[in-house]
Amino acid sequence: MGDFAPTEGYAESGSAAAIALENLSHVYRNGRGAKNVDLRIGRGEVFGFLGPNGAGKTTLIRTLLGLIAPTGGRGQVLGLDIVGQSRELRRRVGYLPGEASLYDWLTGYQNVDFALRVRGVADRSRLKRLAGVLDVDLGRRLKTLSHGNRQKVAIIAALAHDPDLLILDEPTSGLDPLMQETFQNLMREENSRGKTIFLSSHIMGEVEALCDRVGVIRDGRMVAVDSVEHLRKQRMKYVTCEFAGSEPVPDLAAVAGVRDLQVSGQGRRFSFAFTGSLDSLVQSLAGRGLSDLTVTDPPLEEVFRAFYEQGGSR
């Protein structure tokens, strides 16, 4: 596939972003893949990339890295065209695939050293520092390491050449909770140094802890791109309310947006999930002796389950 002809404003906006995709697609013969994805990720941003298995996450990542050719649209990474300049952009990117390819017969050090030599990087001080931070013995052959320690080696290989952009697919797979926390601190440190991080993960706590914005892909299409906080606020709420006195309680089962209703406290205490206007809900509750009302945001898992199951909206 040949180089894309630039469209007005595209080159300028793309070069100002770490990742700039315009209607980017890679669709396989069976109709699956990534479809017409528009996305801008600013330099220095931590972006979470979420979606159910088979949604097109890996396809999109491989396309924007120039590892597979797009079937439509265009893209730039670090101001470089993903088709015509893919080799140069990959020199500046640290990529950790979901299933990293490492050489079992080599030691951890030899695996990372080989990757650095291919990139023409002579300094090994960063390699050694990362090994200390992640607490992994790089002197052992890969085939003797646990899954978690192999993952640490793969993380080091992605970071050791000090890339401008990190693209990490399920980076903490196999890591214990303490090491997941260490990884998060490492990512915060990298971001504080100006690194852009594109993080695909199924661990919602990790996404919530690290990311400025998130994008959700489903059936190959982006169904949401927003900040975590805004997505949470515009979707479902958890509500608990209680009524005192002798006034009849409202028929909450008939209120639009109420689901999973639970009743306790002799029929005067209610807990439920709510989607819709809080103003209309409060109006439904008013004038009935309302004595207590608590509204909380749902766990992040609940927010994204709705997108995974229903597709959500942009």
Fold and architecture overview:
It contains eleven helices and 14 strands. It is of the alpha/beta class and 314 residues long. The chain folds into two domains: 163 residues, Rossmann fold (3-Layer(aba) Sandwich), CATH 3.40.50.300; 62 residues, 2-Layer Sandwich (Alpha-Beta Plaits), CATH 3.30.70. The strands form three sheets. Strands 6-7-8-3-9-10 form a six-stranded mixed β-sheet, with helices on both faces. Strands 2-1-4-5 form a four-stranded antiparallel β-sheet. A hairpin with a 4-residue loop joins strand 12 and strand 13. Helix 4 runs parallel beside helix 6 and helix 5 runs antiparallel to helix 6. The chain is elongated, with a radius of gyration of 24 Å.
Write a concise synopsis of the structure shown.
The chain is built from eleven helices and 14 strands.
The geometry reads as: elongated
Mean pLDDT: 89
Helix content: 25-40%
CATH architectural designation of the largest domain: 3-Layer(aba) Sandwich
By CATH, the superfamily of the largest domain comes out as P-loop containing nucleotide triphosphate hydrolases
What is the total number of structural domains?
Answer: 2
CATH level 1 name of the largest domain: Alpha Beta
Q: Calculate the terminal CA-CA distance, rounded to whole Å.
A: 30 Å
Strand residues, percent: 25-35%
CATH topology of the largest domain: Rossmann fold
Contiguous runs where pLDDT drops below 50 for at least 5 residues: 1-12
Number of strands: 14
Structural category: alpha/beta
Order of strands in the sheet with most strands: 6-7-8-3-9-10
Reported for the largest beta sheet, the result is: 6 strands, mixed
User: Mind telling me the C-alpha Rg?
Assistant: 24 Å
How many helices? The count is 11
